[in-house]
Amino acid sequence: MRLSKHHGLGNDFLVLLDMDGTQPVSPEDAVALCDRRTGIGADGFMRATPGSAGAQVTMELLNADGSSAEMSGNGVRCLAQAVFLAGLASPPALTVSTDAGLRTVHLVSVLGPRDHRMSVEMGQAKVVGQEPEWVDGDVLDAVRVDVGNPHLVLRWGGAELPGRDELIAIGSRIDGATPGGANVEIVLPSAAAGELDMVVYERGVGPTLACGTGACAVAAAGHDWELAPTTTVVHMPGGPAEISLGEPTRLTSDVTFVATVDTSWPSR
Length: 268
Fold this sequence. Notes:
Number of helices: 4
Structural class: alpha+beta
Order of helices and strands: EEHEEHEEEEEEHEEEHEEE
CATH topology of the largest domain: Diaminopimelate Epimerase, Chain A, domain 1
Number of domains: 2
CATH architecture of the largest domain: Roll
Radius of gyration: 18 Å
Strand content: 35-45%
CATH class of the largest domain: Alpha Beta
Helix content: 10-25%
Strand order of the largest sheet: 1-2-3-4-5-6-7-16
Number of strands: 16
CATH superfamily of the largest domain: Diaminopimelate Epimerase, Chain A, domain 1
């Protein structure tokens, strides 16, 4: 099996281009391949198969723990980079069928042989409700946001964002208490006016360096809290992403091709 590895701001994925649909991937395979010590290592595994209903390709996404995810803003851009580099579609646009609906990825610019700036139409980022049960201590406000997948965004009152251990404690508690799980983002206003800083605990993965849908969720919540305009920059440990809210919301940031990997199949 030949895979390619890509990352969007350090949020990394393995991509299998299975355009004849003959290599189904089990959750156990995804877990083994994503393991950072005994496998190749990644936050998630994606399989591209032929498109339908107007899409050029279909995206199947499994988290590092083998669970399914509806959508990933970084992941779908990594998949598009893999498809473009393999010559399976021509830039500048690729339509992708996901479990959250049809998404269109655009190649904005070529930064180098391995690096591309890409944007994706994410649908609408909707603030759908308050979660006052999570308001406590340094958490000043909590809202649910739908970006085709579930998010809980926490407005932080501390002087700086929580460290990894505290993030894991907060994120795992909320994720475990939410039916179907949830991605958890913690946000502070950035030093730059109208911009936002965030850390994220991703459902099925844990802390990651970046989350595309999470950045959209944070932008929507931040706008609702009057912390950010409709177009803003969300800063994550892996780097910044530009978010433009609307119908659709647009996520723009950089994607990097890491390597091509040949491995045995099945993986265990």
